[in-house]
Amino acid sequence: MARRVLGEDEAALWRAFVHDVAPLRTGRNVASVPVTPSFGKEASSPAGRPAGGRATGMVTVRLVEMSPVQQPRVRPAPHVGVRAPGLDDTQWRRLSRGQMRVDARLDLHGYIVQEAFEEFHRFMQRSRVMGWRCVEVVTGLGSGARGGSIRRELPHWLHRADIAPMILGVVHSHQGNQGALRLLLRKKR
Fold first, then answer.
1. pLDDT digits (tens, 9 = 90+) for 7-47
2. Contact (Cβ atoms closer than 8 angstroms) between residue 139 and residue 180
3. Which CATH number applies to 89-185: 2.40.30.20, 3.40.50.1370, 3.10.450.50, 3.30.1370.110?
4. CB 3.0-4.6 Å disulfide test: which of 106, 146, 179, 181 passes with 123?
């Protein structure tokens, strides 16, 4: 497959677009972009140098690797029944044994999946604003062989980028009932 050669105006537009972009990871340190000016002799490059009628050249783009300080820190949501890092023994024991007081409860029985998600999202935002520490989300067992659709979707909702940082621990409310989850939320800072 033949590579397309960029004109000087396209190369200038590309340089302006990527001037402050740093790659997440690199395989190479230097990438070259071929440039063929598409205008006449009087046209000039963005740097103010004459482009020359038939001149071709290479624009070298130096890729800079990001330091660990610049990379955003993402906290994954804990899995159900798995102790998350940063959760002390006492809190984990109280949460997993059902001894922690529930500040609020959301019952998703009777909702379709989209409505249930919207209710769950509003509930989690309200939990953050109110400063609640432990909340319970009831999905019900569902009637399907693998459980209900809301029950299957809830773990995916917990791993969303706007929800996961709020959650410190997740357990089933009762060992015999897999249709309800207790969420230990991080303290508001």
1. 888 888 888 888 787 777 655 555 555 555 544 444 444 55
2. yes
3. 3.30.1370.110
4. 106
